[in-house]
Amino acid sequence: MTDVAVGSLETPVGALHVAVTDVGLADVSWVRTRMALPVVDDPDRVAPVLAQLAEYFRGARRSFDVPIDWRQTGQLQREVLETLYSTVDYGGSVTYGELATRSGDRVPARGIGSIMGSNPVPIVVPCHRVVASDGLGGYSGGTGQDGLAVKQWLLIMEGALPPTLGWDPGHLAL
C-alpha cells in the first residue's frame, strides 16, 4: 500500500469520502479519509466506487462488487466483516449475537460491536445491518452526533425497518 486515490459523494446521509488503494476500497468515511498514505489524483480508481455508492443511494444497487483492500484490518476483524458482507443481504439484518455465531463464536457479541465500530468500509460492508437483540444498537457512522439516525435511515431505505411517520427518503432528519 503506497498511495490512495480519494473521492467524495454527497448522499442523503451526508458527504461520504472514499479512499482506494491499488488493491481496492480501503476507507469510507463521513470525514476526510482516515488513511495516512500519500494521496494521488486518480479519478479512474475511485470512479467505480463512487458510481456504485450513488446507485445504492438511488435504490438501483443492492450489493457492491468493488474490490476491498483488507490490509489494514486484523485477521479476526476481517473474518467477521467478510461474514457480514457475505451473509447479510440488502433489506436484512442480524443481531450482534447472531453474527458472532455465524463468525464461528470466537468473538462475543460485545466484541462484534467493537468490530462493527472499526469497520473501515461502512455502507459497502453493511455494519448498519447489525442490530441489538432489543433495538438498533450503536452506529459510529455519520458526522458525530447523528450515528443512530444514519443507521435508522439506511435500514428504512433498505426495507429492514418500516418507515416512520414523516420519513423523507431524500433527507436525513436529525
From TrEMBL:
Keywords from the UniProt entry: DNA damage, DNA repair, DNA-binding, Metal-binding, Methyltransferase, Phosphoprotein, Transferase, Zinc
Reaction catalysed by this enzyme: a 6-O-methyl-2'-deoxyguanosine in DNA + L-cysteinyl-[protein] = S-methyl-L-cysteinyl-[protein] + a 2'-deoxyguanosine in DNA; a 4-O-methyl-thymidine in DNA + L-cysteinyl-[protein] = a thymidine in DNA + S-methyl-L-cysteinyl-[protein]
Pfam families: DNA_binding_1, Methyltransf_1N
InterPro entries (UniProt xref): MethylDNA_cys_MeTrfase_AS (IPR001497), MethylDNA_cys_MeTrfase_DNA-bd (IPR014048), MethylDNA_cys_MeTrfase_DNAb (IPR036217), MethylG_MeTrfase_N (IPR008332), MGMT_N_sf (IPR036631), WH-like_DNA-bd_sf (IPR036388)
All residue ranges annotated as the Methylated-DNA-[protein]-cysteine S-methyltransferase DNA binding domain in the record: 76-159
Biological function: Involved in the cellular defense against the biological effects of O6-methylguanine (O6-MeG) and O4-methylthymine (O4-MeT) in DNA. Repairs the methylated nucleobase in DNA by stoichiometrically transferring the methyl group to a cysteine residue in the enzyme. This is a suicide reaction: the enzyme is irreversibly inactivated.
Annotated protein name in UniProt: Methylated-DNA--protein-cysteine methyltransferase
Required co-factors: Zn(2+)
Highest taxon of source: Bacteria
Boundaries of every Methylguanine DNA methyltransferase ribonuclease-like domain copy: 7-69
One BP annotation, GO: DNA repair
Organism annotation: Kibdelosporangium phytohabitans
Keyword DNA repair: yes
Keyword Phosphoprotein part of the UniProt annotation: yes
GO MF, one example: metal ion binding
